[in-house]
Amino acid sequence: MSNNFTYSINRPGSQTHALDFHSGQQPQPGQIIRLSGPNGAGKTTLLQLLSSLIRPSEGQSPYTSDDLFYLPHHAGMRGQLTVWENLDYWAALFNINAKHYAKEILEITDIFELNSLLHVSLYLLSAGQQRRAALLRLALVQSKKLWLLDEPETSLDQATIQKLGHIVTAYADKGGSVIWASHQDLPTRTDGEIIL
Amino acid sequence: MIKLLRYEIRQYWSGSGSALLSLGCYFILTFLMGYATQNHPASENLSGISPALAFQWVAMIVSSLLAIERIWLDDARDHLLAQQRLSPYSTLFFITLKSGAFWICIFLPLLIVFGVQSALSSGQAEIIPVIPFLLASISITLLLVLAGALALGSRNGMLISLVIILPLLVPPLTFGLGAHLAIQQGIDVLPALSLLSAYALFNLVLVPCAVHYVLSHTRNS
């Protein structure tokens, strides 16, 4: 089975360009790969292709949805639910038993200083706090092979970006692979780069 | 699965509270408008159909329309559709889940009120008019789930989808009203119930396929 794929990006009013991904760009276990490129280059599209959210024009993603965790730019949370309920809902959506990850949830809640906000409705929180709430999911996906992170640092302050860097590094040190789309230098080691 | 259903149901009772809004709208339409037309001279010429009864059925459909946004659009706004697509559950599962939650939150309360109203108006405990309502509500739920999905496609999608879906809501309205009248007048109710059942079956088979097609062709996530 080929691990290569191509996707044609057609935007009205602009030239069609192809987005290629080949097996050499696949991160190895323990690697953190930075995905960079100007706005509109196709970073989000590439992550969506890898997560099988959209289908390539040719070939297929080397990953199945069971293998990976995809944190999109818009994390997908219900504003009416509290931080904790959103996490609980997301765990139910992905058939994850949150009780098995109680220790990890407590740790990440503590790291992102969300203890006092766990039972506050999401719509009452600032953009940065909402982003931190979305990052709580990282506690539940420690056993996945690959994390696809689409600009997870958006709206976060520098101190929180550093904390996120520590969490991602710890995951990679345990053998996980990461593709991190970003316009900035990563707050972690960078084992490779995909430039679009 | 139960947890997901619980969260779906909660959607209808939180924020602007679509379930309460639908119920309130139903009460206003049936009580106020039914009362207003009760002594109107034209009411004698409506081919034997009591205006209150007709309003009861029209109000049921109009009230349920108020909650369409809750089905898919809320999730689209919250960017949850992509997460649902990534989850191990199939699209058919979400269609079933959302149809079930919609029916429980919107039609179950209306069904109870409808039964009570029917019993009060006839002066005896009537369970049978609830059956046409139940069958009609299955078709309407499915069609509104389709309308909600169609609305994801464009900016004024809700208006366009309603224009497409509204004619499809006429059969459950007319067959349901016909069955209800037949029960009231003591004539054979089976033909109207058969038509209602056939239409519900038709929707049960076709609408999930149509919604699946619409959702797989929308990038609105």
In brief, what are we looking at here?
The complex is a heterodimer of chains A (196) and B (221). Chain A has helices spanning 43-50, 83-93, 102-111, 127-135, 158-173; strands spanning 5-9, 17-21, 32-36, 58-59, 68-71, 146-150, 177-181, 192-195.
Verbal overview:
- The complex is a heterodimer of chains A (196) and B (221).
- With 196 residues, chain A is of the alpha/beta class.
- In chain A, the strands form 2 sheets. Chain A has a 5-stranded parallel β-sheet, sandwiched between helices. A 3-stranded antiparallel β-sheet of chain A has the order 2-1-4, with no helix packed on it.
- In chain A, strand 1 and strand 2 form a beta hairpin.
- The mean pLDDT of chain A is 87.
- Chain B has 221 residues and is mostly helical.
- Chain B is 76% helix and 0% strand.
- Chain B is built from 11 helices and no strands.
- In chain B, helix 3 runs antiparallel to helix 10, helix 8 packs antiparallel against helix 10 and helix 8 packs parallel to helix 11.
- The chains are: A alpha/beta (196), B mainly alpha (221).
- At the A-B interface, helix 2 of A face helix 1 and helix 6 of B.
Summarize this structure as a short list of keywords or feature phrases.
heterodimer; A: 196 residues; alpha/beta; five-stranded parallel β-sheet; 8 strands; 18% strand; B: 221 residues; mainly alpha; 0% strand; globular
Structural class of chain A: alpha/beta
Query: What letter string, H or E per element, gives the SSE order of chain A?
Result: EEEHEEHHHEHEE
Give the overall shape of chain B.
globular
Cα distance spanning the termini of chain A? 25 Å
Strand proportion of chain A, as a percent range, falls in: 15-25%
Mean pLDDT across residues of chain A: 87
Q: Work out the number of β strands of chain B.
A: 0
Radius of gyration of chain B (CA) equals 18 Å
pLDDT under 50 segments of chain A (min length 5)? none
| Helix percent band of chain A | 25-40%
- Alpha carbon gap, first and last residue of chain B: 22 Å
The proportion of residues forming helix of chain B, as a percent range, comes to over 70%
Anisotropy-based shape of chain A: globular
